[in-house]
Amino acid sequence: MLDVVTKFKIEGAPVSCERYGNGHINVTYLLICENNRWYILQKINKNTFKNVEALMGNISAVTKFLQEQDPIRRHTLHLVPTLTGEDYFCDADGEYWRMYDFITDSLCLDQPETADDFYQSAVAFGKFQNSLASFPAHTLYETIPNFHNTVSRYAQLHEAMEKDPCSRLQDVKEEIEFALAHESEAGAICDRLATGELPLRVTHNDTKLNNVMLDASTREALCVIDLDTVMPGSALYDFGDSIRFGASTAVEDEQDLSKVSVDLALFEAYTKGFLSTCASSLTPLEIQLLPMGAKLMTLECGVRFLTDYLMGDTYFRTHREKHNLDRCRTQFKLVADMELKWDAMRRIVETIANN
Length: 355
Ligand code: ADP
Ligand code: GN1
Ligand code: MG
Prior knowledge:
- By secondary structure, the chain is of the alpha+beta class.
- Helices cover 43% and strands 13% of the residues.
- The protein has two domains: 2-104, Phosphorylase Kinase, domain 1 (2-Layer Sandwich); 115-354, Aminoglycoside 3'-phosphotransferase, Chain: A, domain 2.
- Helix 4 (150-163) packs parallel to helix 10 (290-311), helix 7 packs antiparallel against helix 8 (264-278) and helix 8 (264-278) packs parallel to helix 12.
- It has a five-stranded antiparallel sheet with strand order 1-2-3-5-4. A three-stranded antiparallel sheet has the order 6-8-9, with helices on one face.
- Bound molecules: adenosine-5'-diphosphate, 2-acetamido-2-deoxy-1-O-phosphono-alpha-D-glucopyranose (GN1) and magnesium ion (MG).
- Adenosine-5'-diphosphate is lined by residues 20-26, 28, 40, 77, 100, 102-103, 106, 108, 210-211, 225-226, 228.
């Protein structure tokens, strides 16, 4: 590890470098150097991200653009360059590494502790999207094509069902039934993007609560992180993915499904925060479809976890047996609960948008 760390322009000699955070994709380390200088070191998942150079080009361009709009250092990620001035380092084993300044005095939550925490995360993601409205979207490389194309996520599920390489299909009859019963809705966003009814925007695409940092003392929105999936997309993806993860009454891998439901107070708090920073740039149809964004992103994520379970857990990092199946079940439970609360969700959006 020391070998990798010393390739970057760090200040002070390294003191410790330990695994850090709860991400499912990259391998993250907290590096502490002399004089209490902290950094985030990440091994980029090259199975997920096929073109690291283009991916890092996106992150470099987007962070520079955001830094110009908001000069406060803790409000934007800052890449630490290598000694030769590159944005990443490729080691002798062909593994790719990057480093960021650690965002100090911050909090990163897996569940909101109060509705205001969630409101603040919405302010951060809404501002992020608004700030990138004038970014030239066509210059961004599509790091994962069809990332939130729910129809193509279903196609991957069907492929996994046909292959069933680990003979797990027999264990997941109920989950497959739920997925198939909802398949007719899969095109609700991507079909409208294709026809131009919904506008294509630069979006974050992975707006989990643990991809935003809050100030540890004021608990106000600080900085959006995890920019690997910044690509052209729909505002509904960003809104929906936040609700999926943060408005749930339980964690994403909760095994006791009786604990999993959508908290309407959290849904309302997020909607308020999001619309406070980006309502002026959303179209009436986008606003109307916000509940659908929440439902589809949750359904899609459940389908992705189920697909990965069938394929032998090759994509999302797992920490126990059937971990991806547990994750799939929470997502499908949330979808079912959203359906029960559908009218209330629509009313909340309507009321906030009209105020
Ligand atoms: P993944 O794609 O694996 O989710 P992330 O970029 O989200 O990776 O990083 C994983 C975790 O590391 C985050 O949830 C957060 O806790 C922490 N983290 C990442 N970048 C920073 C940073 N610049 N400052 C402080 N903490 C960070
Ligand atoms: C992954 O990277 P991380 O852990 O923030 C995934 C998201 C999923 C999420 C589910 C690049 O997010 O799409 O919604 O797990 N990221 C990628 O928790 O696939
Ligand atoms: Mg993350």
